[in-house]
């Protein structure tokens, strides 16, 4: 029975923590009448006092509504039941000699080493592919340069043939005259 009350206390602790947090949020120095009066200097003292009372009522009502909503959310989501199950699992694992929550540093080191080796291999493969692509692009550039030189040589040959044809025509037309 002690375990049940301890487990139930987790839900109780959750609610207490929420209420404390809510109280600290809704309790500010502005609740003091002097601070409140500074915010509304154009009102009379009686009006400021009435506004302050209204403000306190609103904050109190808001506080109550938020607590009710929190209770409702806890009930809807079954927070208490879930906290009980978590506590039970934690207790079972602490009693189970086969369950080890301790991490073996050697295993972690081995896994990390294997991951790094795989990463290095992957990067090496990427580098090899990039070098191969660079070599192919370089070969293509050289091929294009040689084709350009071949074309410029052909252009010179065509110009020479044109010149010879023009010279031949000129000689033949002079001979016919």
* Main β sheet profile: none
Average predicted local confidence, pLDDT: 78
Please trace the helix and strand order, writing H or E for each element. Answer: HHHHH
Residue windows where pLDDT falls under 50 for at least 5 positions: none
If you compute it from the alpha carbons, what radius of gyration comes out, rounded to the nearest whole angstrom? 45 Å
| Structural class by helix and strand composition | mainly alpha
Q: How many angstroms separate the termini?
A: 136 Å
Determine the fraction of residues in helical runs and give it as a percent range. over 70%
Share of β-strand residues:
under 5%
Number of helices in the DSSP assignment? 5
Coiled coil: 113-147
InterPro entries: PMF1/Nnf1 (IPR007128)
Keywords: Cell cycle, Cell division, Centromere, Chromosome, Coiled coil, Kinetochore, Mitosis, Nucleus
Subcellular location: Chromosome, Centromere, Kinetochore; Nucleus
Topology record:
Blueprint (H helix, E strand, L loop, with lengths): L1 H25 L6 H7 L5 H33 L1 H17 L9 H72 L1
Helix pairs in contact: 1-3, 1-4
Summarize the structure.
With 177 residues, the chain is mainly α.
Explain this structure.
- Its main location: nucleus.
- It comes from Heracleum sosnowskyi.
- Residues 113-147 form a coiled coil.
- This is Polyamine-modulated factor 1/Kinetochore protein NNF1.
- With 177 residues, the chain is mostly helical.
- It has helices at 2-26, 33-39, 45-77, 79-95, 105-176.
- Helix 1 runs antiparallel to helix 3 (45-77) and helix 1 (2-26) packs across helix 4.
- The chain has 5 helices and no strands.
- The longest helix is centred in the C-terminal third of the chain and has 72 residues, at 105-176.
- The mean pLDDT is 78.
- The chain starts with a helix and ends with a helix.
